[in-house]
Design a protein that fits this description.
There is one protein chain. The protein is α/β, with parallel strands linked by helices and 521 residues long. It is built from 18 helices and 19 strands. Helix 10 links the parallel strand 6 and strand 7. Helix 3 runs parallel beside helix 4 and helix 12 packs across helix 13. The N terminus is likely disordered.
């Protein structure tokens, strides 16, 4: 994809400091915030975390440039006032904690609880609401603020925050049922009791796993741990426009792999050469245009030509350094004026030809991709920004970089479309329409901590939603769905998915190298 938030870290201010800044009396999670009486009415402030109602001036963020939130806001307001008609609602749009603090200060203690809809990825407003101690319902807007939602809710669980409940669902009905938990507060209950009620609703609204789901048999020919470690010795990963040296020592120690840092200048030199020579880049661009089932209007031959030249530049650097994989600081490079074409189609081509291309200079995911592709004797992987949906029991793996040979280089290629990035409506990327009814294995290998994050899901469909990233593989989780909320604060947003049931192979690898498995489902 192209989303700038998967590697982002954030700091939550201390409760007392934030509450003081907001001018709100912080309360204990075991303290009621509403006393019933004649004429008294529960008052809830609803925050919509968005940059602007119509995203015309947002450079890059989910759901996408030009997205019109106005119908969404009207629908949410109408539904809340219908379902919770006994309560008084007040509404605010905010894009930073300072704005929230000012609103809380003006409200004083007159507001008894909050609902927060996380609708853009680059905005995090939970801190001041958490610090107030008042009951808060945090809702993920599907294909909107998902990355921040996952990272912060994992923090809430890990820190055992008792006044903030949360739910991620594509169905407004689930959110409204969770909002009904404010009845606990209206009856004199505490924020902790409210949060416990929301957690119960979230678990009850999570769709049961479909035990009758027919999974297509998919035997993956894998290397043994010994063969894999031998094969990985000396394998090189290129990091462009950033540094991978934080992983260099541990990757060398665990797998014998090498990380080489390169500059944007190195990439541009190779890109300009491919542009000047033209012939090969034109061949690649024409092939993409012919193969794709759709090329979105606005993506002209020049855009495809520049993307093809970027692919040839990536390939040239791999050949020059004898490397297996490359990851590029694509967003920093493109928006900083350091590169002049998105590298996404280039990564798509590399992954389809047995090499590794990973976006956002994500070294950990790129190393994981290299290891998985080697383990499976060539299967491409999919590095994604996942979304959770309790209404379908699905994790949706979303990105704008995706291969079309998920079943192996010798397997069938699925169809794909060439589209503009949803976030900024620029460049060219792919929507890969991947196979369904196959078991998938998703991991992250963290060499510094000697841990492997692990879960599995059954690919059941592809989402064609125009919101968020282009390729969206929807996978139903057979394991503990609730547990999927717990690891994002430590591991970040990206995950690496490969088609095939590799549980046995991953666990054997962990035993062989002395790594710990962290099962997140």
């Amino acid at each position: 994809m192209s989303c700038s938030f998967s590697r982002r870290q954030f700091v939550t201010a201390g409760a007392s400091a934030v509450a003081a800044a907001a001018g709100v009396t912080a309360i204990s999670s075991n303290q009621p915030v509403f006393a019933q009486g004649p004429g008294k009415k529960l008052k809830i402030r609803v925050f919509f975390a968005i940059w602007e109602e119509v995203q015309d001036n947002v450079q890059i963020d989910w759901p996408g440039r030009g997205y019109d939130f106005r119908p969404v806001l009207a629908r949410y307001k109408g539904a809340l006032e219908s379902v919770l008609s006994d309560y008084e609602f007040v509404y605010s749009i905010a894009s930073n904690p300072d704005a929230v603090n000012q609103i809380l200060a003006e409200d004083g203690d007159s507001v008894h609880g909050y609902i927060l809809f996380g609708m853009n990825n680059g905005i995090q407003l939970v801190g001041p609401l958490q610090a107030s101690g008042r009951p808060t319902l945090y809702c993920d807007y599907h294909f909107g603020g998902c990355g921040q939602f996952l990272i912060y809710t994992a923090h809430l669980l890990r820190a055992k925050i008792e006044n903030v409940g949360f739910i991620a669902s594509s169905q407004l009905a689930d959110i409204l049922v969770a909002a009904k938990c404010f009845d606990v507060i209206a009856k004199g209950g505490t924020p902790k009791e409210f949060t416990e009620a929301v957690a119960k609703v979230r678990q009850e609204r999570t769709k049961p796993y479909n035990e009758r789901l027919k999974i297509i048999e998919d035997k993956v020919d894998c290397l043994s741990p010994k063969e894999l470690l031998e094969k990985l010795k000396g394998v090189k990963l290129l990091v462009v426009g950033n540094t991978g040296q934080g992983f260099a020592g541990s990757a060398k120690e665990a797998f014998g792999m090498e990380i080489i840092d390169l500059s944007f200048g190195d990439l541009n030199d190779a890109w300009n050469k491919a542009l000047e020579e033209k012939t090969e880049a034109l061949k690649v661009a024409n092939r993409w245009k012919k193969e794709a089932t759709t090329v979105e209007a606005g993506i002209d031959d020049e855009e495809l030509f520049k993307s093809a030249a970027m692919y040839l530049a990536e390939k040239s650097l791999l050949d020059q350094h004898g490397a297996f994989g490359i990851t590029i600081n694509c967003l920093g490079g493109f928006y900083g004026g350091h590169i002049f074409a998105y590298p996404c189609l280039g990564f798509f081509e590399l992954n389809n030809t047995g090499k590794v291309g990973v976006c956002e200079s994500d070294v950990r995911s790129a190393l994981t991709h290299c290891i998985l592709t080697t383990l499976t004797k060539g299967r491409p992987c999919f590095v994604s920004d996942p979304i959770l949906d309790v209404s379908t029991r699905q994790i949706i793996y979303a990105h704008c970089v995706a291969p079309t040979r998920m079943l192996g280089l010798d397997g069938p290629a699925n169809g794909y479309e060439i589209l503009r990035h949803a976030e900024d409506r620029q460049g060219a990327c792919v929507r890969s329409l991947t196979p369904t009814r196959y078991m998938t294995t998703t991991i992250e290998i963290d060499t510094p901590s000697k841990r492997i994050l692990f879960h599995q899901g059954v690919a059941v469909s592809n989402s064609y939603s125009d919101e968020g990233c282009r390729t969206k593989i929807c996978a139903e989780i057979p394991g503990d769905f609730e547990k999927l909320h717990t690891q994002w604060d430590h591991w970040g947003w990206h995950r690496v998915t490969v088609f095939g049931d590799l549980k046995k192979e991953i666990f054997e690898l962990a035993d062989a190298i002395g790594f710990t498995i962290v099962e997140e489902a």
